[in-house]
């Protein structure tokens, strides 16, 4: 890939979806700027996975941006709230899981937008999907489309006629589709991390919603799951 190839920013959490999304960015011929967030999440082991993924995908630069969303709380991932272990856990207000972090993708995309404009990139990749997602409102196609419109209004590049594109290539894939796509791309999917509540010895718990979705995706894709679970997901 030449230095004249266009840059693009990818949100790289360390998870399976963001890994495959960033790999699709690379396959498109773009140079990868990887952006991760240390937001004081309880599953901080995913930051180690994000570094592994960024290295494996030959990111031109990888920024791990610190911010403490635990100061806000409101989520099982940032506050002293138990991660549900009996299937998709919801709160008492509208069925949104307690693992939803308030406005997380809006915050993350806003910062990715800032880096993209500063770096001269016009594409931002995010690994959300709306089929096997866990009920998060900021994973929906409507949100992605709305944020793209906001980016055009909020930036110098946008108002000067050089708009940004929010790329969500996994938007309409199932988890099995994503596993198959990662395999087609030749990725070592074992580098990624999905668990919301890691065990003290560094294993996927196997009981949280994210572990269940991950395991089911490999099973339905008919591809061996490299993940080490403390308890086999059911």
Your description of this structure?
- With 234 residues, this protein is α/β, with parallel strands linked by helices.
- Helix content is 35%, strand content 11%.
- It contains seven helices and five strands.
- The chain has a five-stranded parallel β-sheet, with helices on both faces.
- Helix 1 (16-27) crosses helix 6.
- The N and C termini lie far apart (43 Å).
- The relative contact order is 0.17.
Structural key phrases:
234 residues; alpha/beta; five-stranded parallel sheet; 5 strands
Please outline the helices and strands.
Blueprint: E1 7-11, H1 16-27, E2 31-38, H2 45-56, E3 61-66, H3 104-119, E4 123-125, H4 141-154, H5 156-159, E5 165-167, H6 175-184, H7 209-221
Parallel strand pairs: 1-2, 1-4, 2-3, 4-5
Helix pairs in contact: 1-6, 6-7
Nearest-integer average pLDDT: 93
Pattern of helices and strands: EHEHEHEHHEHH
The helix-and-strand class reads alpha/beta
Q: Which word captures the global form?
A: globular
Strand order of the largest sheet: 3-2-1-4-5
**Span of the ends, CA to CA:** 43 Å
Report the count of strand segments.
Answer: 5
What is the number of helices?
A: 7
């Amino acid at each position: 890939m030449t230095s004249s190839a266009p840059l693009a920013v990818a949100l790289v959490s360390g998870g399976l979806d963001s890994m495959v999304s960033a790999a699709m960015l690379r396959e498109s011929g773009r140079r990868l700027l990887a952006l991760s967030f240390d937001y004081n999440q309880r599953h901080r082991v995913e930051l180690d996975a994000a570094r592994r993924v960024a290295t494996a995908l030959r990111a031109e630069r990888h920024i791990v941006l610190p911010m403490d969303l635990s100061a806000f709380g409101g989520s099982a991932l940032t506050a002293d709230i138990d991660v549900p272990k009996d299937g998709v856990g919801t709160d008492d207000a509208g069925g949104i899981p307690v693992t939803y972090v308030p406005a997380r993708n809006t915050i993350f995309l806003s910062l990715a937008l800032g880096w993209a404009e500063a770096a001269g990139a016009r594409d931002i990749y995010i690994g959300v999907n709306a089929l096997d997602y866990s009920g998060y409102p900021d994973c929906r196609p409507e949100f992605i489309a709305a944020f793209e419109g906001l980016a055009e209004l909020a930036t110098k590049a946008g108002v000067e006629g050089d708009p940004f594109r929010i790329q969500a290539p996994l938007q309409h894939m199932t988890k099995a589709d994503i596993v198959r796509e990662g395999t087609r791309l030749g990725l070592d999917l074992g580098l990624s991390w999905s668990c919301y509540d890691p065990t003290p010895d560094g294993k996927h718990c196997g009981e949280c919603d994210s572990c269940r979705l991950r395991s089911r995706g490999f099973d339905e894709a008919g591809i061996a799951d490299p993940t080490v679970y403390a308890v086999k997901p059911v």
